Amino acid sequence: MVIAISVREIVSFALSSGSIDTRYVSHSRAMQGTVIHKKIQEENLKLIKGYSKEVYLTMDFDFDKFTLKVEGRADGVIEDGGVIVEEIKSTNTNLVYIDENFNELHWAQAKFYAYILCEQKNLKNITVRLIYYCLLNDETKTFEKKYTKDELKEYIDFIIKQFKDIADYNIEWKDRRNGSIDEAGFPFKEYRKGQRELSVAVYNTVREKEKIFIKAPTGIGKTISTIFPVVKALGQDKIDRIFYLTSKTITRTVAEEAFKILRKNKMNIKTITLTAKEKICFKDEPKCNPDDCIYAKDYYDKLKGSLYHILKDNDEFSRTTIEEIAEKYKICPFELSLEIAKWCDAVICDYNYIFDPTAALKYIFEECTDRISILIDEAHNLVPRAREMYSAEIRKSDIYKVKKLMTGKAPKLSGILGKINSIMVSYRRELEDDQIVQKIITSVPKDLSKMLKSFIKEGDEFIAKNQGVEGIDEVMNLYFEINGFLNTLAEVDDCYINYVDTSDRDVIIKLFCIDPSTRIKYKMNAAKSCVLFSATMTPMDYYISLLGGDENSYRMFLKSPFDSSNLGISAVPLSTKYKDRENTIGDIVEIIHDTVSLKKGNYIAFFPSYKYMENAYKLFLEKYDDINVEIQNNDMNEKQREEFLSKFEDKEKNILAFCVMGGIFSEGIDLRGDSLIGTIITGVGLPQVCFEREIIKDYYNNFNGQGYDYSYTYPGMNKVLQSVGRVIRTETDRGIAVLIDDRFFTNKYKMMMPREWENMNFVRDKKELKKKVEEFWKKN
């Protein structure tokens, strides 16, 4: 059996020691480092004879029970007479403070690559070159060491030895895992309608190293139907690891339950659910250093002594399990979860762990990715999330706040921030003169970019020398914000629009990623296979174009397993356009009241905005007092959300809840049976008109002539589909949905309606609506 591991991982495992100390380390630096690598490599290609960049190297180490396959990419290899292995490291540390012994891990990676080359090319000696690039002043510092093959072999043997014990256990585990997966069948007696077809399609996608986009309606059991075939592929050694990505806690829980079902079905499989650092940290706020946190102190040493036992004793690493283990060994729960993820068969996590350029799992994903399969649940949510991930902004208010804090404490830092503040003030004056509040700019001015870099340089020294002083947290937050902005600025291309916004008594300069598709595609193409699925992936071409697919991407449309007659769905032709709302809100409130009065039970009335919802709610209370009414608040915390949903479980209380489409209660909640028997949806869900929406519209008008649909129509209809989808959750559910808007009667919207709405009633007025709803309840 083969265990594949990257050079970076095995070196880090063998040589890391001491404590976690991130007082002054930004994850965004990795992105910045990537840009610098490319820059140096391109220069070397032009200047150095025999230079090759990103040289893939791999070597097998044979043991009794397994073969260890170590692989990675050397930054550069020079073959011109002798052979030189080049390793590039970017840093914010002044190069004056860096000598050849600055970090043993940096040498270790290069030495591993050097040893592989010695073996492959039968070299007796080789040179290792380590280049440090200072991000603050674009200066470089180079060190070189010559090694014999025997010296490198002794060094590499030591590293391999540190890894072997846990590798032996990993092989034993994989043998047991694969045997159990091979023997186990589908965990239920029979497939639901559509489940077998879905499972076969997913398995073939993994086997053929492709990506597939799937519209899978509620009730098919898409979670188990996508996980089961990928686990089967795992057991056949077609892949090494599964990533199950989702943006919501409830779908994360459903994935955990699916893996539990497989374990009950005698499948041995290790899984972990990753929780954000801010949520899982034992401290009130994460301060990852040995002075402020006992869980950071001596972390690497404590981990080495406990990791084998942790993996041996557990198969399911939920948040609770991770917290218990971390408390037992007094180690950081977040860092522990990242380490355990390397040894698990399946990782359940948020989208950002794969797609965000600053994600914590980037180092796993960038190496050995051709053995990874990615399952993306509720994939329609990845579009807005990706836009956020790849965009960046700076705010004048943040600049000015830190400037005031540093006045008198750090004159140079305060002076730089003063200049940045002045540049942003000049933007505000310019927009005031033009009598506008937002403006697209072709590029970020060079003087601003220069000052931002100066802040990073000066902030670097200030943070390093002033830990614990008043205002240091604010300086660090701004440091990371500006660093991220500069990193994104280096990557800006035709998929971006830069703009200035002064609408909220602030000055914001934003690098807005309109089209994230190329960046999503880059990540997905690195994996062996990707499965993207959602109950509301409509229109399919829209989502394929934004999520990195193309005309050759596999696509699949599944029918709902539920009888379409279980849902009584009707559309009423009333205008909900902004200009007509005052005139029609009375009729809408009356429709809501009359509909919920026809049968006792719980209902949700969805609206496209908080203001519209609140106006309807107030009018409803003025006119009616015979129904228990609740309303969604704008800033509910997790406890308040749970309390809100718990009211639907009280069958004695008939609840009418006023909620917002696209909000926390229109997606990802699972109210089965009598917990919810109807929804009334007002409007077509169009996002509110704003500057960014107009930018998206203009961009896609130029790109494909579908700007309005890409910016407004399709995202809005997705909210409608999600809201209707709250009603029928199981094959025994019965319920009604009422769509209030005359636009639902147009061909454009009819074309977007799913097949399970085949019994849609397009009624003339509220009188006919009442008749249709009454008829439905008489039959059900």
Overall description:
Belongs to the helicase family. DinG subfamily. It comes from Inconstantimicrobium porci. Keywords: 4Fe-4S, ATP-binding, DNA damage, DNA repair, DNA-binding, Helicase, Hydrolase, Iron, Iron-sulfur, Isomerase, Metal-binding, Nucleotide-binding. This protein is α/β, with parallel strands linked by helices and 780 residues long. It has 4 domains: 164 residues, Alpha-Beta Complex (Lambda Exonuclease, Chain A); 69 residues, no CATH class; 119 residues, Fumarase C, Chain B, domain 1 (Orthogonal Bundle), CATH 1.10.275; 216 residues, Rossmann fold, CATH 3.40.50. The protein has 27 helices and 25 strands. The strands form 4 sheets. Strands 10-9-11-8-12-17-7-18 form an 8-stranded parallel beta sheet, with helices on both faces. A 7-stranded parallel beta sheet has the order 21-22-20-23-24-19-25, sandwiched between helices. Strands 1, 2, 3, 4, 5 and 6 form a 6-stranded mixed beta sheet that branches. Helix 2 packs across helix 18. The longest helix has 35 residues. About 1% of the residues have low confidence.
